[in-house]
Write a structure and sequence with these properties.
Elements (H helix, E strand, L loop, with lengths): L1 E9 L2 E6 L2 E9 L2 H10 L4 E6 H6 L5 H10 L3 E5 L5 H9 L4 E4 L1 H5 L1 H10 L1 H4 L2 E8 L2 E4 L4 E6 H7 L7 E6 L11 H10 L4 E4 L5 H9 L4 E4 L1 H4 L5 H9 L2 H5 L1
Parallel strand pairs: 1-4, 1-12, 4-5, 5-6, 6-7, 7-10, 10-11, 11-12
Antiparallel strand pairs: 1-2, 2-3, 7-8, 8-9
Helix pairs in contact: 1-3, 8-9, 10-12
């Protein structure tokens, strides 16, 4: 399992939102590249980056911050926020990231997303589907618009697709340090064969172990690291352990 420490960008700074609420923001650093270096020093092989401005508006304003992260570290970068069409996806990959998370655009135009994944083999291996849910129901556009579609239903729909991952976020847990919604994530894992990355609420090493136990391909760590609640090096070590050692 991979641990993906998170860098959420707004106005070029590293911030965190409470439950995705843009009015409840805490700023942690003016230097995203330095934060990325700290993550890699702790053992992170992937970094999860979100352009919060682009997630809400669809316009990339944090491109230079993303490029600075890519230049600063050798870790792989997963970027979400603003992937609205093939041109924006190409632009995001052109910044140097390894993987782009597509969320809102897929939910708004499913036929387009299906064509993107099933007909463009050159892109499929670099695309993850973002499933962001409140009480199991999906939300889009920076979580400002609620849909009447269940995350588990979409996960089942893409079974067998050549996607590199699903990034499954429980919005109610995000930034709240309340633990992962293991039951909801386990349902998504059971519904599909696409690797699932858990996001939202990872606040302890016990959460990391729980994610590993149910078969997550990865777990995103955000506010818990910024506020000193979790040792990232230990989290990475647990994620790398074989199953017998991890259970012990």
């Amino acid at each position: 399992m991979d641990i993906l420490p998170a860098i959420d960008l707004r106005g070029g700074k590293v911030v965190r939102l409470m439950q995705g609420d843009y009015t409840r923001q805490k700023t942690y650093s003016p230097d995203p590249a330095e934060v990325a270096r700290q993550f890699v020093a702790a053992g992170a092989k992937w970094i999860h980056v979100v352009d919060l401005d682009a997630a809400r508006s669809g316009k990339c304003v944090n491109g230079e911050s993303v490029r600075s992260i890519c230049r600063a570290v050798e870790a792989k970068i997963e970027l979400g926020g603003g992937a609205r069409d093939e041109q924006s996806i190409d632009a995001m990959l052109g910044m140097g990231v390894s993987r782009v998370v597509v969320g809102s655009a897929a939910m708004k135009d499913w036929p387009w997303f299906e064509r993107l994944i099933l007909r463009h083999n050159d892109l499929a291996g670099m695309i993850a589907l973002g499933l962001d849910a409140r009480d199991g129901m999906l939300a889009v556009h920076g979580w400002t618009e609620q849909l009447e579609t269940a995350a588990v239903e979409v996960a089942a729909r893409i079974k067998g697709w050549p996607l590199c991952a699903i990034v499954a976020t429980d919005i109610s847990r995000d930034g709240m340090l309340e633990g992962v919604n293991i039951e909801a994530i386990a349902e998504i894992i059971a519904a599909t064969d696409v690797p699932v990355i858990a996001s939202g609420g990872v606040s302890s090493l016990a959460d990391v172990r729980a994610c590993k136990r149910i078969g997550c391909a990865g777990a995103i760590v955000g506010r818990a690291w910024y506020e000193g609640k979790i040792d990232l090096a230990q989290a990475c070590k647990i994620a790398d352990e074989d199953e017998d050692t991890a259970e012990a």
